Amino acid sequence: MRRFTFFLVAVATMAGLVTLIAPAPGHADGQSTPPFVTDIPRGYREWQWISSAHEAGNLNSLGAVLGNDVAIKAFRAGKLPFPDGTIIAALHYRYVQSDENNKVFGQAQSFVPGAATNIQFMVKDSTKYAATGGWGFGHFADGKPGDAAFMKSCFPCHEKAGATDLVFTHYAP
Amino acid sequence: MRRFTFFLVAVATMAGLVTLIAPAPGHADGQSTPPFVTDIPRGYREWQWISSAHEAGNLNSLGAVLGNDVAIKAFRAGKLPFPDGTIIAALHYRYVQSDENNKVFGQAQSFVPGAATNIQFMVKDSTKYAATGGWGFGHFADGKPGDAAFMKSCFPCHEKAGATDLVFTHYAP
Questions:
Q1: Is the dihedral of CA A146, A149, A154, A157 positive or negative?
Q2: Which residues form the domain of B79?
C-alpha cells in the first residue's frame, strides 16, 4: 500500500511539473509567437486538387495544392475571405527529370515529383489564429512540425497576398 | 401544309443521310481505327490527385493527373495491371510565370498553370479497348474530342510504358 501511495504521489507530482513546464499549445516560443499548426490535418491526401506549382531556384520544387471540402467550395464560388474550417494543403517534392519519360519522348522535357520534401497547411480559424490574419500555418518535414522560429516566417510572406485572403494559389479550372 | 410536309420529308431525308454517313461510334476513321474515348467522363474535376507534371519544350505544359476511385485504389495498392473501371485524367495548362508570386519572392521563380489547353483520359475496359492494350484514350480541347487521325498517336506512345500497364504517371505519396 505504501508503495502504491508513493506511486500516486509521484504521478501527481510529475503531472504537476508537466503542467508547469509545458507551454500553452502553439506558444512553444513563449507569448511572442502566435499559434501555428502542430498536427497534420487528417485525410489531406484524399482532398481535391486546387492547382499545381513549380518553384524554381533554391526551392526546386514541384507539387500540388489540395483543399478540404470547405476550401474547394470557397475556391469554386470565388468566395473571399475563406470561411472558418478551410484547410489548404501544399504537398512539395523535389523537381526532378523523369528519365523514363524522356526516353520515350526522345528528349529531356519531362519533369515530375521526386522525393517528398515537406507538406504545408493553412488552417482558417479566425479566433484561434486572429494574430496571423485568421490563418494557422503549418509546415511538416518527415512528419515533424517546423520550429517556432521557422514558423514566424510564414505570416509576413503570406500577408503580401492580402487581396486573396493571404492565399497565393488560384484554382485551376 | 405543303410546306410543312416538305419540311418533314427534308428532315427525314437528312436524318437518313446522317445515319448512312455517320460512322459507328469510336470508328470515325473506319474499321482501321480502334475505338477511343469520345465523351468526357463525368465528375473528373472532383477526383483525387495522383501527381503533377511539367512538360517543357513544345508542350510547355503544367498540370495534374487525377484518378477516379478505382484508379486511386489501384495506385495506392501498387496493383498492376489496372482493373477495368480505372479512369485517369490529365489536366493540362500552359506553363506560365506567376508575376504576383514573383513580386513577393523578389525573383522569377514561381510557375503556375495558365490557360487550360487540353484534358486527356485513359479509360480501362479490357473488352471495349482490347485493340489498344485495354485502354481507351481520350483528348479534349475546348470540350471537343481529338479526331481519329490524332487519336491514333496515343497508343503507340503509351505502349512504351508497358512495364506500368501503359501509364506514365507514378503516384506521388
A1: negative
A2: 30-164
